[in-house]
Amino acid sequence: MRKTEVPESVKIVGNNIKEIIKEKNLKVRNVAHDADLDIEALRRYMLGKQIMGIDKLIRISKALNVEISELFQKI
């Protein structure tokens, strides 16, 4: 049995997180710490390899100091 493909929207959100981190010159480890996430989990989210729950999205948006809607741009 094959693992279900991650939806394209998850990949877009992950890429948006990556772009915001880059634009703000932040370090992934600091964002992970501020969001109370394991750094590897945040990296999986950024690569679009893992689906995020709403609680994680809220914590990430707060750590990035952006409105949660910014994570959903280009969907």
Automatic annotation (TrEMBL):
Sections of the chain in a coiled coil: none
InterPro entries, per the entry: Cro/C1-type_HTH (IPR001387), Lambda_DNA-bd_dom_sf (IPR010982)
PROSITE patterns registered for this protein in UniProt: HTH_CROC1 (PS50943)
Domain annotation HTH cro/C1-type: ranges: 17-71
SMART domains associated with the record: HTH_XRE (SM00530)
One MF term in the entry's GO annotations: DNA binding
Pfam family, one: HTH_19
Record's protein name: Helix-turn-helix transcriptional regulator
Organism lineage string: Bacteria, Pseudomonadati, Bacteroidota, Flavobacteriia, Flavobacteriales
